[in-house]
Amino acid sequence: MENKNLIIIAVVIVAIIAVIGVVLSTGFLNKTADGSTTPFSNAFMEGTFTGNVKLANNSSDFMQSYEDSQHDITYNISTVDNSSALMDVYYLQGIKNPEKRTFNGNEWNIYFSQAYHANNTEDIINVVICQSQGENQGYLVYMIVGPETDLNVTLNTFGEPYISYVEPLLKSLSLKESSNVPKINEEFGLSESEFAQQLNLIQQVKSGNTSALQGD
Q1: Which phi and psi (to 5°) does residue 119 adopt?
Q2: Residues 6 or more apart whose Cβ sits within 8 Å of residue 34
Q3: Rounded distance between C-alpha atoms, residue 51 and residue 40, angstroms
Q4: What's the predicted TM-score (pTM) here?
Q5: What does the pLDDT profile of the chain (216 residues) look like in tens digits?
Q6: Residue extents of the structural domains in the chain
Q7: Contact 165, 73 (CB under 8 A)
Q8: CATH fold of 2-196
Q9: SS3 string of the chain?
Q10: How buried is 47 (Cβ within 10 angstroms: 0-12 exposed, 13-18 middle, 19+ buried)?
């Protein structure tokens, strides 16, 4: 049962990466430095993007997608009850050792990763994941930099994606408390007890007990 649930979690992670690839813009335009910004506001967060950014998907109250077609950037922002647990799951996918920053009293964990484009495995997409856990809910900002970007991509806090786009966004954010926030266990199709078992296994792995993944 434990291994089955871990497989479910892994499949969901792969699906999330695939969706990220599908929503990436494929247009390419030359970068401009006009200093433009785009404000946004929703039920759980408000702030300002760098550049000309348009709402791409607003089908859920707790997850939205925005696109900067000029620089081939997609922003996926969302909220769940326990974003820290989600990052524990990502740990099994090799996403670890975050940079830590505090803006406007909100503590952020910032992760840098890469994945293959869903439509072309020769194309690499670069991902910056920003996670903050409040008292009652967590907040997530994914910046996905597509293969047609004109940015000078360096995946760390000294690179253009972070310095020019991510950090200004995080500094602008106001986080709102929401009601009926999605539960992280339901996002994976697991009961609370099943998801708790998986988190326990992950914690064992993080402490060095890799045999916890073998099970029956």
Answers
A1: -95, -10
A2: none
A3: 12
A4: 0.79
A5: 545 444 444 444 444 444 444 333 333 333 444 689 999 999 999 999 999 999 999 989 999 999 999 999 999 999 999 999 999 888 888 888 999 999 999 999 999 998 877 766 678 899 999 999 998 999 999 999 999 999 999 989 999 999 999 999 999 999 999 999 999 999 889 999 998 888 888 888 877 776 655 654
A6: 2-196
A7: yes
A8: Protein Transport Mog1p; Chain A (3.40.1000)
A9: CHHHHHHHHHHHHHHHHHHHHHHCCCCCCCCCCCCCEEEEECCCEEEEEECCCEEEEEEECCEEEEEECCCCEEEEEEEECCHHHHHHHHHCCCCCCCEEEEECCEEEEEEEEEEEECCEEEEEEEEEEEEEECCCCEEEEEEEECCCCCCCCCCCCCCHHHHHHHHHHHHHCEECCCCCCCCHHHHCCCCHHHHHHHHHHHHHHHCCCHHHHCCC
A10: buried
